[in-house]
Protein backbone atom coordinates (compact mmCIF):
# COMPACT_ATOMS: atom_id res chain seq x y z
CA UNK A 1 0.00 0.00 0.00
CA UNK A 2 1.43 3.39 -1.00
CA UNK A 3 1.73 6.30 1.39
CA UNK A 4 -0.98 8.22 -0.48
CA UNK A 5 -3.43 5.30 -0.34
CA UNK A 6 -2.68 4.81 3.37
CA UNK A 7 -3.42 8.48 4.02
CA UNK A 8 -6.62 8.19 1.98
CA UNK A 9 -7.68 5.13 3.99
CA UNK A 10 -6.97 6.91 7.27
CA UNK A 11 -8.95 9.95 6.21
CA UNK A 12 -11.93 7.81 5.17
CA UNK A 13 -11.80 5.91 8.46
CA UNK A 14 -11.77 9.19 10.36
CA UNK A 15 -14.67 10.55 8.32
CA UNK A 16 -16.74 7.39 8.90
CA UNK A 17 -16.05 7.60 12.62
CA UNK A 18 -17.07 11.27 12.65
CA UNK A 19 -20.29 10.37 10.87
CA UNK A 20 -20.98 7.73 13.52
CA UNK A 21 -20.24 10.24 16.26
CA UNK A 22 -22.73 12.69 14.75
CA UNK A 23 -25.42 10.00 14.82
CA UNK A 24 -24.63 9.28 18.48
CA UNK A 25 -24.77 12.88 19.66
CA UNK A 26 -27.38 12.91 22.41
CA UNK A 27 -27.46 9.11 22.70
CA UNK A 28 -27.32 7.64 26.19
CA UNK A 29 -24.36 5.43 27.03
CA UNK A 30 -25.00 2.23 29.03
CA UNK A 31 -21.54 0.68 28.55
CA UNK A 32 -18.71 3.09 27.81
CA UNK A 33 -17.73 3.06 24.14
CA UNK A 34 -19.84 -0.07 23.65
CA UNK A 35 -23.62 0.09 24.26
CA UNK A 36 -25.91 3.03 23.50
CA UNK A 37 -29.59 3.92 23.29
CA UNK A 38 -30.70 6.57 20.81
CA UNK A 39 -33.85 8.15 19.41
CA UNK A 40 -33.47 8.70 15.66
CA UNK A 41 -35.77 10.14 13.02
CA UNK A 42 -34.61 7.82 10.26
CA UNK A 43 -33.21 4.32 9.98
CA UNK A 44 -29.39 4.47 10.12
CA UNK A 45 -27.01 2.19 8.27
CA UNK A 46 -24.54 0.14 10.25
CA UNK A 47 -20.91 1.03 9.58
CA UNK A 48 -17.48 -0.46 10.18
CA UNK A 49 -17.53 1.05 13.66
CA UNK A 50 -21.16 0.95 14.71
CA UNK A 51 -23.95 -1.63 14.65
CA UNK A 52 -27.53 -0.33 14.83
CA UNK A 53 -30.62 -2.34 15.68
CA UNK A 54 -34.26 -1.55 16.45
CA UNK A 55 -36.96 -3.64 18.16
CA UNK A 56 -39.94 -1.28 17.73
CA UNK A 57 -41.65 -3.61 15.27
CA UNK A 58 -40.33 -6.85 16.73
CA UNK A 59 -41.64 -6.58 20.27
CA UNK A 60 -45.13 -5.12 20.04
CA UNK A 61 -47.53 -4.58 22.93
CA UNK A 62 -51.02 -6.02 22.49
CA UNK A 63 -53.33 -3.34 23.82
CA UNK A 64 -56.84 -3.60 25.22
CA UNK A 65 -57.84 0.04 24.76
CA UNK A 66 -55.43 3.01 24.97
CA UNK A 67 -52.84 1.11 27.03
CA UNK A 68 -49.52 0.58 25.26
CA UNK A 69 -47.10 -1.06 27.71
CA UNK A 70 -44.91 -2.08 29.39
CA UNK A 71 -44.01 -5.15 27.33
CA UNK A 72 -44.48 -8.53 28.97
CA UNK A 73 -41.88 -10.74 30.63
CA UNK A 74 -41.41 -12.98 27.59
CA UNK A 75 -40.55 -10.00 25.38
CA UNK A 76 -38.14 -8.66 27.99
CA UNK A 77 -36.47 -12.09 28.12
CA UNK A 78 -36.19 -12.31 24.32
CA UNK A 79 -34.77 -8.80 24.17
CA UNK A 80 -32.13 -9.60 26.79
CA UNK A 81 -31.15 -12.76 24.88
CA UNK A 82 -30.89 -10.73 21.68
CA UNK A 83 -28.70 -8.06 23.23
CA UNK A 84 -26.50 -10.56 25.04
CA UNK A 85 -25.93 -12.36 21.75
CA UNK A 86 -24.89 -9.11 20.07
CA UNK A 87 -22.52 -8.17 22.88
CA UNK A 88 -20.88 -11.61 22.71
CA UNK A 89 -20.75 -11.77 18.91
CA UNK A 90 -17.23 -12.05 17.49
CA UNK A 91 -18.13 -9.97 14.43
CA UNK A 92 -19.39 -7.13 16.65
CA UNK A 93 -16.51 -7.26 19.12
CA UNK A 94 -14.95 -3.97 18.05
CA UNK A 95 -18.18 -2.18 17.21
CA UNK A 96 -20.36 0.13 19.20
CA UNK A 97 -23.84 -1.32 19.51
CA UNK A 98 -26.73 1.12 19.32
CA UNK A 99 -30.31 0.19 20.16
CA UNK A 100 -32.29 2.93 18.44
CA UNK A 101 -35.96 3.78 18.51
CA UNK A 102 -38.11 6.19 16.57
CA UNK A 103 -40.28 9.12 17.58
CA UNK A 104 -43.44 7.10 18.22
CA UNK A 105 -43.67 7.96 21.91
CA UNK A 106 -45.37 4.70 22.84
CA UNK A 107 -42.78 2.49 21.16
CA UNK A 108 -40.03 4.72 22.49
CA UNK A 109 -41.22 4.21 26.07
CA UNK A 110 -41.30 0.43 25.62
CA UNK A 111 -37.82 0.43 24.08
CA UNK A 112 -36.51 2.45 27.02
CA UNK A 113 -37.89 -0.07 29.52
CA UNK A 114 -36.26 -2.93 27.60
CA UNK A 115 -32.74 -1.52 27.61
CA UNK A 116 -33.20 0.02 31.07
CA UNK A 117 -34.26 -3.36 32.47
CA UNK A 118 -31.28 -4.99 30.73
CA UNK A 119 -29.01 -2.52 32.51
CA UNK A 120 -30.62 -3.41 35.84
CA UNK A 121 -30.59 -7.18 35.33
CA UNK A 122 -27.25 -7.71 33.57
CA UNK A 123 -25.18 -4.55 34.11
CA UNK A 124 -26.15 -4.41 37.80
CA UNK A 125 -27.15 -0.76 37.61
CA UNK A 126 -29.70 0.57 40.05
CA UNK A 127 -33.04 1.62 38.51
CA UNK A 128 -32.11 5.22 39.24
CA UNK A 129 -28.74 4.89 37.48
CA UNK A 130 -30.35 3.28 34.45
CA UNK A 131 -33.07 5.93 34.32
CA UNK A 132 -30.58 8.79 34.62
CA UNK A 133 -28.73 7.35 31.64
CA UNK A 134 -31.97 7.11 29.64
CA UNK A 135 -32.77 10.78 30.17
CA UNK A 136 -29.19 12.01 29.65
CA UNK A 137 -27.94 13.98 26.69
CA UNK A 138 -30.65 15.27 24.39
CA UNK A 139 -33.16 12.57 25.32
CA UNK A 140 -36.56 14.04 26.03
CA UNK A 141 -38.84 12.75 28.77
CA UNK A 142 -40.78 9.55 28.16
CA UNK A 143 -44.51 9.06 27.86
CA UNK A 144 -45.82 7.37 31.04
CA UNK A 145 -47.81 4.15 30.76
CA UNK A 146 -51.53 3.98 31.50
CA UNK A 147 -54.09 1.37 32.48
CA UNK A 148 -56.26 -0.80 30.24
CA UNK A 149 -59.52 1.02 30.95
CA UNK A 150 -61.67 2.67 28.31
CA UNK A 151 -61.84 6.06 30.05
CA UNK A 152 -59.36 8.85 30.68
CA UNK A 153 -56.01 8.09 32.25
CA UNK A 154 -55.93 9.05 35.93
CA UNK A 155 -52.69 7.34 36.97
CA UNK A 156 -49.26 7.52 35.36
CA UNK A 157 -46.82 4.62 35.58
CA UNK A 158 -43.34 5.87 34.72
CA UNK A 159 -40.28 4.24 33.18
CA UNK A 160 -38.57 4.49 36.58
CA UNK A 161 -41.55 2.76 38.25
CA UNK A 162 -41.16 -0.15 35.83
CA UNK A 163 -37.41 -0.44 36.41
CA UNK A 164 -37.90 -0.33 40.17
CA UNK A 165 -40.61 -3.00 40.01
CA UNK A 166 -38.41 -5.28 37.92
CA UNK A 167 -35.46 -4.71 40.27
CA UNK A 168 -37.60 -5.51 43.34
CA UNK A 169 -38.89 -8.70 41.69
CA UNK A 170 -35.32 -9.68 40.78
CA UNK A 171 -34.14 -9.11 44.35
CA UNK A 172 -36.88 -11.38 45.71
CA UNK A 173 -36.23 -14.13 43.17
CA UNK A 174 -39.49 -13.77 41.27
CA UNK A 175 -37.66 -14.45 38.00
CA UNK A 176 -34.33 -15.77 36.80
CA UNK A 177 -33.61 -15.53 33.09
CA UNK A 178 -31.07 -18.36 33.40
CA UNK A 179 -33.96 -20.78 34.04
CA UNK A 180 -36.96 -18.86 32.65
CA UNK A 181 -39.11 -20.98 30.30
CA UNK A 182 -40.25 -18.46 27.71
CA UNK A 183 -42.13 -21.05 25.64
CA UNK A 184 -44.21 -22.06 28.66
CA UNK A 185 -44.97 -18.44 29.48
CA UNK A 186 -46.10 -17.66 25.94
CA UNK A 187 -48.11 -20.86 25.71
CA UNK A 188 -50.16 -20.48 28.88
CA UNK A 189 -50.77 -16.74 28.57
CA UNK A 190 -52.88 -17.40 25.48
CA UNK A 191 -56.63 -17.62 26.00
CA UNK A 192 -56.98 -21.01 24.30
CA UNK A 193 -54.32 -22.50 26.58
CA UNK A 194 -55.66 -21.31 29.93
CA UNK A 195 -54.91 -17.57 30.06
CA UNK A 196 -52.80 -17.56 33.21
CA UNK A 197 -49.52 -16.10 34.44
CA UNK A 198 -47.36 -16.53 37.50
CA UNK A 199 -46.94 -13.27 39.40
CA UNK A 200 -44.89 -14.82 42.20
CA UNK A 201 -43.70 -18.28 41.08
CA UNK A 202 -44.78 -20.92 43.56
CA UNK A 203 -47.13 -18.50 45.34
CA UNK A 204 -49.49 -16.55 43.05
CA UNK A 205 -51.03 -17.58 39.76
CA UNK A 206 -53.42 -15.08 38.14
CA UNK A 207 -55.93 -16.55 35.71
CA UNK A 208 -59.14 -15.88 33.83
CA UNK A 209 -62.30 -17.18 35.50
CA UNK A 210 -63.34 -20.76 34.62
CA UNK A 211 -66.73 -21.62 33.08
CA UNK A 212 -69.17 -24.47 33.71
CA UNK A 213 -68.14 -26.26 30.51
CA UNK A 214 -65.10 -26.28 28.24
CA UNK A 215 -66.15 -25.08 24.83
CA UNK A 216 -65.54 -22.50 22.14
CA UNK A 217 -68.27 -19.88 22.11
CA UNK A 218 -68.31 -17.31 19.30
CA UNK A 219 -64.65 -18.06 18.65
CA UNK A 220 -63.71 -17.58 22.31
CA UNK A 221 -62.29 -20.60 24.19
CA UNK A 222 -63.88 -21.25 27.59
CA UNK A 223 -62.34 -23.60 30.16
CA UNK A 224 -64.05 -25.68 32.83
CA UNK A 225 -62.44 -26.08 36.27
CA UNK A 226 -61.27 -29.60 35.37
CA UNK A 227 -59.10 -28.23 32.57
CA UNK A 228 -56.85 -26.62 35.18
CA UNK A 229 -56.48 -29.60 37.51
CA UNK A 230 -53.42 -31.28 35.89
CA UNK A 231 -51.39 -28.06 35.74
CA UNK A 232 -52.41 -26.99 39.24
CA UNK A 233 -51.42 -30.35 40.71
CA UNK A 234 -48.05 -30.38 38.92
CA UNK A 235 -47.25 -26.92 40.25
CA UNK A 236 -48.53 -27.32 43.82
CA UNK A 237 -51.50 -24.98 43.46
CA UNK A 238 -53.58 -25.90 46.49
CA UNK A 239 -56.04 -22.99 46.79
CA UNK A 240 -58.37 -21.12 44.45
CA UNK A 241 -59.77 -17.67 45.28
CA UNK A 242 -62.73 -16.42 43.23
CA UNK A 243 -63.42 -12.67 43.22
CA UNK A 244 -66.25 -12.52 40.70
CA UNK A 245 -69.80 -13.85 40.81
CA UNK A 246 -70.49 -17.58 40.74
CA UNK A 247 -70.32 -19.04 37.24
CA UNK A 248 -69.13 -22.56 38.06
CA UNK A 249 -69.84 -24.75 41.08
CA UNK A 250 -66.96 -24.45 43.57
CA UNK A 251 -67.47 -28.10 44.54
CA UNK A 252 -65.73 -29.06 41.32
CA UNK A 253 -62.52 -27.66 42.83
CA UNK A 254 -63.11 -28.79 46.43
CA UNK A 255 -64.10 -32.32 45.40
CA UNK A 256 -60.78 -32.51 43.55
CA UNK A 257 -58.88 -31.62 46.72
CA UNK A 258 -58.41 -27.87 46.27
CA UNK A 259 -59.42 -25.28 48.84
CA UNK A 260 -61.81 -22.70 47.37
CA UNK A 261 -62.79 -19.28 48.70
CA UNK A 262 -65.28 -16.68 47.47
CA UNK A 263 -64.37 -13.04 48.12
CA UNK A 264 -66.69 -11.21 45.75
CA UNK A 265 -66.53 -7.51 44.99
CA UNK A 266 -67.95 -5.66 41.99
CA UNK A 267 -66.08 -5.70 38.68
CA UNK A 268 -63.91 -2.60 38.26
CA UNK A 269 -64.21 -1.64 41.93
CA UNK A 270 -61.88 -1.92 44.92
CA UNK A 271 -62.07 -4.42 47.79
CA UNK A 272 -63.31 -3.56 51.26
CA UNK A 273 -60.94 -3.75 54.21
CA UNK A 274 -62.63 -6.98 55.31
CA UNK A 275 -62.10 -8.64 51.93
CA UNK A 276 -58.50 -7.42 51.78
CA UNK A 277 -57.73 -8.84 55.24
CA UNK A 278 -59.42 -12.15 54.44
CA UNK A 279 -57.49 -12.46 51.18
CA UNK A 280 -54.17 -11.77 52.87
CA UNK A 281 -54.91 -14.23 55.66
CA UNK A 282 -55.93 -16.98 53.22
CA UNK A 283 -52.67 -16.54 51.33
CA UNK A 284 -50.62 -16.45 54.53
CA UNK A 285 -52.02 -19.70 55.93
CA UNK A 286 -51.97 -21.58 52.63
CA UNK A 287 -49.34 -24.24 52.04
CA UNK A 288 -48.70 -24.18 48.34
CA UNK A 289 -49.63 -21.74 45.61
CA UNK A 290 -52.81 -19.68 45.36
CA UNK A 291 -54.63 -19.34 42.02
CA UNK A 292 -56.61 -16.09 41.96
CA UNK A 293 -59.25 -15.16 39.41
CA UNK A 294 -62.03 -12.69 38.76
CA UNK A 295 -63.75 -12.37 35.36
CA UNK A 296 -60.68 -11.64 33.22
CA UNK A 297 -58.08 -12.17 35.94
CA UNK A 298 -56.77 -8.63 35.53
CA UNK A 299 -58.36 -5.90 37.66
CA UNK A 300 -59.59 -7.36 40.94
CA UNK A 301 -57.06 -10.18 40.77
CA UNK A 302 -54.08 -7.87 40.29
CA UNK A 303 -55.30 -5.49 42.98
CA UNK A 304 -55.38 -8.04 45.79
CA UNK A 305 -52.11 -9.66 44.74
CA UNK A 306 -50.65 -6.15 44.75
CA UNK A 307 -51.68 -5.77 48.39
CA UNK A 308 -49.78 -8.95 49.25
CA UNK A 309 -46.67 -7.70 47.40
CA UNK A 310 -46.77 -4.47 49.39
CA UNK A 311 -47.30 -6.19 52.73
CA UNK A 312 -44.86 -9.08 52.43
CA UNK A 313 -42.20 -7.77 50.03
CA UNK A 314 -42.50 -4.02 50.69
CA UNK A 315 -43.20 -3.16 47.07
CA UNK A 316 -44.43 0.37 46.56
CA UNK A 317 -47.83 0.57 44.88
CA UNK A 318 -46.20 1.67 41.63
CA UNK A 319 -43.64 -1.16 41.79
CA UNK A 320 -46.41 -3.69 42.39
CA UNK A 321 -48.51 -2.38 39.49
CA UNK A 322 -45.47 -2.36 37.20
CA UNK A 323 -44.37 -5.91 38.04
CA UNK A 324 -47.88 -7.37 37.83
CA UNK A 325 -48.37 -5.75 34.41
CA UNK A 326 -45.03 -7.07 33.16
CA UNK A 327 -46.21 -10.55 34.19
CA UNK A 328 -49.84 -10.10 33.11
CA UNK A 329 -50.45 -7.04 30.91
CA UNK A 330 -53.65 -5.09 31.53
CA UNK A 331 -53.74 -5.75 35.27
CA UNK A 332 -54.93 -3.22 37.89
CA UNK A 333 -57.41 -0.83 36.35
CA UNK A 334 -58.89 2.61 37.02
CA UNK A 335 -59.59 3.30 40.72
CA UNK A 336 -57.72 0.14 41.69
CA UNK A 337 -54.44 1.96 40.97
CA UNK A 338 -55.28 4.73 43.44
CA UNK A 339 -56.54 2.14 45.95
CA UNK A 340 -53.09 0.52 46.03
CA UNK A 341 -51.44 3.91 46.54
CA UNK A 342 -53.79 4.61 49.45
CA UNK A 343 -53.15 1.18 51.00
CA UNK A 344 -49.36 1.20 50.66
CA UNK A 345 -48.58 2.69 54.09
CA UNK A 346 -51.00 0.37 55.88
CA UNK A 347 -49.66 -2.70 54.06
CA UNK A 348 -46.09 -1.77 54.94
CA UNK A 349 -47.05 -1.23 58.57
CA UNK A 350 -48.88 -4.56 58.80
CA UNK A 351 -46.03 -6.38 57.09
CA UNK A 352 -43.41 -4.83 59.36
CA UNK A 353 -45.48 -5.75 62.41
CA UNK A 354 -45.96 -9.32 61.27
CA UNK A 355 -42.26 -9.78 60.57
CA UNK A 356 -41.42 -8.27 63.95
CA UNK A 357 -43.53 -10.91 65.68
CA UNK A 358 -40.85 -13.42 64.84
CA UNK A 359 -38.34 -11.48 66.98
CA UNK A 360 -39.16 -12.10 70.68
CA UNK A 361 -36.93 -9.27 71.89
CA UNK A 362 -39.12 -6.69 70.19
CA UNK A 363 -42.56 -5.58 71.33
CA UNK A 364 -45.21 -5.65 68.60
CA UNK A 365 -48.64 -4.06 68.47
CA UNK A 366 -51.18 -6.88 68.80
CA UNK A 367 -53.92 -4.59 67.53
CA UNK A 368 -52.34 -4.34 64.08
CA UNK A 369 -51.41 -7.99 63.76
CA UNK A 370 -54.78 -9.24 65.01
CA UNK A 371 -56.38 -7.78 61.89
CA UNK A 372 -55.02 -10.82 60.08
CA UNK A 373 -56.61 -13.31 62.50
CA UNK A 374 -60.24 -12.99 61.41
CA UNK A 375 -62.35 -16.15 61.12
CA UNK A 376 -62.51 -17.36 57.54
CA UNK A 377 -65.72 -19.32 57.93
CA UNK A 378 -67.67 -16.71 55.98
CA UNK A 379 -64.94 -16.50 53.35
CA UNK A 380 -65.15 -20.09 52.23
CA UNK A 381 -67.52 -20.86 49.40
CA UNK A 382 -71.04 -20.55 50.77
CA UNK A 383 -73.01 -19.38 47.76
CA UNK A 384 -74.28 -16.16 49.36
CA UNK A 385 -76.56 -14.87 46.61
CA UNK A 386 -76.59 -11.29 47.89
CA UNK A 387 -72.88 -10.97 47.10
CA UNK A 388 -73.39 -11.37 43.38
CA UNK A 389 -75.97 -8.71 42.54
CA UNK A 390 -73.30 -6.36 41.20
CA UNK A 391 -72.56 -8.59 38.20
CA UNK A 392 -75.95 -10.10 37.50
CA UNK A 393 -77.82 -9.12 34.37
CA UNK A 394 -77.17 -9.21 30.66
CA UNK A 395 -74.87 -6.17 30.36
CA UNK A 396 -71.19 -6.79 29.72
CA UNK A 397 -68.91 -5.91 32.60
CA UNK A 398 -65.38 -4.53 32.34
CA UNK A 399 -64.03 -8.06 32.80
CA UNK A 400 -66.23 -9.40 29.99
CA UNK A 401 -64.95 -6.76 27.59
CA UNK A 402 -61.27 -7.23 28.49
CA UNK A 403 -61.51 -10.99 28.18
CA UNK A 404 -63.26 -10.73 24.82
CA UNK A 405 -60.56 -8.36 23.52
CA UNK A 406 -57.83 -10.73 24.65
CA UNK A 407 -59.61 -13.69 23.06
CA UNK A 408 -59.59 -12.02 19.64
CA UNK A 409 -55.82 -11.56 19.55
CA UNK A 410 -53.80 -13.22 16.85
CA UNK A 411 -50.59 -15.19 17.52
CA UNK A 412 -47.34 -13.24 17.80
CA UNK A 413 -45.15 -14.94 15.25
CA UNK A 414 -42.60 -12.14 15.62
CA UNK A 415 -41.59 -13.29 19.08
CA UNK A 416 -41.95 -17.04 18.80
CA UNK A 417 -41.26 -17.73 15.16
CA UNK A 418 -43.79 -20.57 15.22
CA UNK A 419 -47.27 -20.99 13.84
CA UNK A 420 -50.16 -20.95 16.28
CA UNK A 421 -53.74 -21.70 15.35
CA UNK A 422 -55.99 -18.66 15.15
CA UNK A 423 -59.17 -18.39 17.15
CA UNK A 424 -61.31 -19.13 14.12
CA UNK A 425 -59.82 -22.62 14.07
CA UNK A 426 -60.77 -25.28 16.55
CA UNK A 427 -58.33 -25.24 19.45
CA UNK A 428 -58.73 -27.57 22.35
CA UNK A 429 -59.85 -26.01 25.64
CA UNK A 430 -57.57 -28.48 27.42
CA UNK A 431 -53.99 -27.37 28.00
CA UNK A 432 -52.33 -30.30 29.69
CA UNK A 433 -49.28 -30.17 27.45
CA UNK A 434 -47.42 -26.94 26.80
CA UNK A 435 -45.87 -25.63 23.63
CA UNK A 436 -48.28 -27.43 21.28
CA UNK A 437 -51.88 -26.66 20.45
CA UNK A 438 -53.92 -29.77 19.73
CA UNK A 439 -56.88 -29.47 17.41
CA UNK A 440 -59.87 -31.52 18.40
CA UNK A 441 -63.59 -31.89 17.93
CA UNK A 442 -65.47 -30.47 20.88
From TrEMBL:
InterPro entries reported for this sequence: CDC14_C, DSPn, Prot-tyrosine_phosphatase-like, PTP, Tyr_Pase_AS, Tyr_Pase_cat, Tyr_Pase_dom, TYR_PHOSPHATASE_DUAL_dom
Domain (Tyrosine-protein phosphatase) ranges: 195-352
Domain annotation Tyrosine specific protein phosphatases: ranges: 277-339
Main subcellular location: other
Pfam families, A to Z: DSPn, Tc-R-P
Record has RNA-binding as a keyword: no
Listed Gene3D superfamilies: Protein tyrosine phosphatase superfamily (3.90.190.10)
Biological process, per Gene Ontology: cell division; sensory perception of sound
Source taxon at top rank: Eukaryota
Cellular localization per UniProt: Cell projection, Kinocilium; Cytoplasm, Cytoskeleton, Microtubule organizing center, Centrosome; Cytoplasm, Cytoskeleton, Spindle pole; Nucleus
Keyword Cytoplasm attached: yes
GO cellular component: centrosome; kinocilium; nucleus; spindle pole
Family: Belongs to the protein-tyrosine phosphatase family. Non-receptor class CDC14 subfamily.
UniProt-recorded name of the protein: Cell division cycle 14A
Amino acid sequence: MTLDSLKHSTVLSTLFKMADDIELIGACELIKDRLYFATLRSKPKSTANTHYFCTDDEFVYENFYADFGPLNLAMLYRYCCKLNKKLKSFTLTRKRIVHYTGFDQRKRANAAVLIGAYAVIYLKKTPEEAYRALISGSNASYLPFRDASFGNCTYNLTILDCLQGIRKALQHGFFDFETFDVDEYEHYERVENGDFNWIVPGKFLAFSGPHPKSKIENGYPLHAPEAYFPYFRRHNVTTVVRLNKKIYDAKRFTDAGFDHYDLFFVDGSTPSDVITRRFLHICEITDGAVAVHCKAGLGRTGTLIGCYLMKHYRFTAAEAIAWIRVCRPGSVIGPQQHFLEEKQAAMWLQGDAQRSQQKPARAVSHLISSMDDLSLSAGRTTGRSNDYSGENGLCMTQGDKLRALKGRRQPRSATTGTTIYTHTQQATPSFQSRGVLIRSTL
